[in-house]
From TrEMBL:
A motif (HXTX 1) lies at residues 36-39. A motif (HXTX 2) lies at residues 120-123. It catalyses: a 3'-end 2',3'-cyclophospho-ribonucleotide-RNA + H2O = a 3'-end 2'-phospho-ribonucleotide-RNA + H(+). InterPro entries: Cyclic_Pdiesterase, RNA_CPDase. Hydrolyzes RNA 2',3'-cyclic phosphodiester to an RNA 2'-phosphomonoester. The keyword Hydrolase applies. It comes from Dongia rigui. HAMAP family: RNA_CPDase. Belongs to the 2H phosphoesterase superfamily. ThpR family. This is RNA 2',3'-cyclic phosphodiesterase. Its EC number is 3.1.4.58. The active site is at residues 36, 120.
Length: 187
């Protein structure tokens, strides 16, 4: 099973992101139901490895926190734009949660990720759009800011490839603790 750990987005934020999806030719847009912030891609896991990962993720304790999406950017390779994304405003609690997820999956037997983590929501995968159109799109949406939303849990998703777009299925959600927020706030 192909798996990843991510933060789901509330419907109102998905709607705000949906309004960004257009105006760039030769681009495959991500459907709003697939918008998420990946914490860790796990890849293909069998049943026993999945059980170890599930147990490790279930042991994570971290406070709830607020996030806001901010700006629109892109990843490129070989001079070609590969991904258009909405960024995540800097939030230490998100990085703390991501580090806990990384530690948990490594303890469960997976190899370390080894990549720099850049939190984002993938909006599109362009197919060789004219460079000036990409620059226009990015300039038009660079001031994008979502409303703030509360992160109360993270989710283990399976990804089923086939057809036009992948289908993501929430396998298990892991609650964050509001009690930890109160504890941290009183330190």
């Amino acid at each position: 099973m192909r798996l990843f750990v991510a933060i789901s987005l509330p419907d109102q934020v998905r709607w705000q992101l949906r309004l960004l999806c257009g105006g760039l030719p030769t681009t495959k847009w991500v459907p709003p139901e697939n918008f998420h912030i990946t914490l860790r891609f796990l890849g293909e896991l069998d049943g026993r490895d999945l059980d170890y990962v599930d147990a490790a993720l279930a042991g994570i304790r971290a406070p709830t926190f607020s996030l806001r999406l901010a700006e629109v950017g892109h990843f490129a390779s070989g001079g070609r734009v590969k991904t258009v994304w909405a960024g995540v405003q800097k939030e230490p609690a998100l990085m703390h949660l991501r580090d806990k997820v990384e530690s948990a999956v490594v303890r469960a037997g997976l190899d370390p990720d080894g990549q720099n983590y850049k939190p984002h929501v993938t909006l599109a995968h362009p197919k060789d759009p004219p460079p000036h159109k990409v620059q226009q799109y990015l300039a038009m949406h660079n001031l994008f800011r979502s409303e703030s939303f509360e992160v109360t849990h993270f989710t283990l998703f399976s990804s089923h490839i086939g057809g036009e777009t992948p289908i993501y299925h929430a396998e298990r959600s892991y609650d964050l603790s509001a009690n930890l927020v109160r504890y941290a706030a009183h330190r």
